[in-house]
């Protein structure tokens, strides 16, 4: 048997099952997920714009879908994803200036990102429902 046929025993890289989830890791993963969700949410915005341009009948159809319970849930989720991604971008911008990198500060900023996104989403929907 030649030396090239023997597989080298190498250590495996750590994976997600090994790491204990911490808040900054979870918010980093959510930042990526909300970015993808916003991509698909923009398709809804484009669909609504096409409906506006297509005439009253099609606009009423799309508005009816968006105005349903499921439509409200999707739009609420889209709003939350937008707010979370916005605050996450501001958090990363802060970190790009080399501020807020201490362990305690990182955790506080990550928690503020989560709580702030929820509060901003609720405020936006209170305003939307009050105006409508």
Automatic annotation (TrEMBL):
Keyword terms: Heme, Iron, Membrane, Metal-binding, Transmembrane, Transmembrane helix
GO MF annotation terms: electron transfer activity; metal ion binding
Cross-referenced InterPro entries: SQR/QFR_C/D, Succ_DH_cyt_bsu_CS, Succ_DH_cytb556, SuccDH_FuR_B_TM-su
BP-aspect Gene Ontology terms: tricarboxylic acid cycle
Requisite cofactors: heme
Subunit field text: Part of an enzyme complex containing four subunits: a flavoprotein, an iron-sulfur protein, plus two membrane-anchoring proteins, SdhC and SdhD. The complex can form homotrimers.
Family: Belongs to the cytochrome b560 family.
Official protein name in the record: Succinate dehydrogenase cytochrome b556 subunit
Organism of derivation: Breoghania corrubedonensis
């Amino acid at each position: 048997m030649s030396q090239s046929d023997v597989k080298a025993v190498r250590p495996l890289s750590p994976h997600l099952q090994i790491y204990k989830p911490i808040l900054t890791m979870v918010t980093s993963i959510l930042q990526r997920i909300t970015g993808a969700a916003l991509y698909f949410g923009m398709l809804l915005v484009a669909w609504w714009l096409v409906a506006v341009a297509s005439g009253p009948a099609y606009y009423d159809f799309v508005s009816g879908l968006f105005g349903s319970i499921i439509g409200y849930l999707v739009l609420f989720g889209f709003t939350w994803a937008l707010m979370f991604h916005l605050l996450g971008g501001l958090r990363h911008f802060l970190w790009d200036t080399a501020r807020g990198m201490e362990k305690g500060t990182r955790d506080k900023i990550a928690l503020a990102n989560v709580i702030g996104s929820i509060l901003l989403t609720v405020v936006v929907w209170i305003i939307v429902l009050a105006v409508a």
